[in-house]
Amino acid sequence: LVELNAALKRDDREAVSRMIAYPARMWDGRRTVIVRNARELDRRFAAVFTPELRRLLRAASSKTAWANWRGVMFESGRIWLAAGEDERLRIQTINEPVKAE
Hints:
Order of helices and strands: HHEEHHEEEE
Helix content: 25-40%
Strand order of the largest sheet: 2-1-6-5-4-3
Number of helices: 4
Radius of gyration: 13 Å
Shape: globular
């Protein structure tokens, strides 16, 4: 999370791209899309990494995380991380925000 937030602050899309487990499911503000590679992420970057999502990522910590065999989640499942082949956690899913009823 520290590395991810630093990369987002610098708007270093290449660094953020290396922190994604492709293919990744991502909410683009209208629907969930499958982002298959860094090129697709670059095209959708602003729609996925909105100011609201960046705020959630800045607030996320191990104290607010929940983990199971599938990975680690933050914000009630809005963001899921999973271990990659190199055993580093990578973003696997960014779900639609939960709507208040």
